Amino acid sequence: MAQNQVKKKQPVNVSRILSWSLSAAIIIFIITLNFLNSGKKPFNTSDNSVEWLSIINTSVDSVKNIVLPDGSRVWLAESATLTYPVTFPGTGREVFLDGEAYFEIEKDSSISFVVKTDANQIRVVGTSFSVNTHYEGTINEVILTSGTVQLQRLDGIGLINLHPGQKALYSKESNTVEINEVDLSQLTAWKYGLITLSNSSIENILKCLKETYHTSIQMDTSTLQNRRYHFSFKRSRGLQDALEQLTFMTGVEAGLQP
What we know:
This protein has four helices and 18 strands. The longest helix is centred in the first third of the chain and has 24 residues. A hairpin with a 4-residue loop joins strand 11 and strand 12.
């Protein structure tokens, strides 16, 4: 009499299945992300055939340098995103910015250059300027270093023309613009990885160092209260390098708080 053959079930390797599932999910995510960031039009343009690229600066405490198809250069700050076409069409040069960036635009009097944000746009021909869409709350910042730019609403209506050395603060809520004269060397030095403080008290310098490196600093400032300093430091070189510069500049020892 034939005996019934009973097949033993092989134990299920749960960890292997989870590993395969996770790998598959990551691959699907990457493919989806590449699809979304390649060829997707970020705003209304006159040419629907343009292929778009999105560059995100994911580096910590560093600036990403980008050369656009027309030769214009962009310094992209940390966590900022720049979206631009693979090739600029003959109808115009348009890019979309979320975050902070510094632009040096190649001059072309026949085709203007437009930086679009979620709230407004900046139209130029050939000039240098910075834009920060994350300046403060619902405020966008534009700083002009050379040439001229026109700050516009998203519908193209002009708001104001800026001149070198001016900063425009545009309120998304009230649709108003505030213009201030500024120290360009201080406000645009970040593109070189520098933090620059002009005519600052020792308290402001120490506060900036504390906020930058998230640590407490020990320094006897009693003899420095009435003095003002021009102080620059490169964030990537670390706190110790900045403290050595500060000690040399003031003649007073600066160090980490025990």
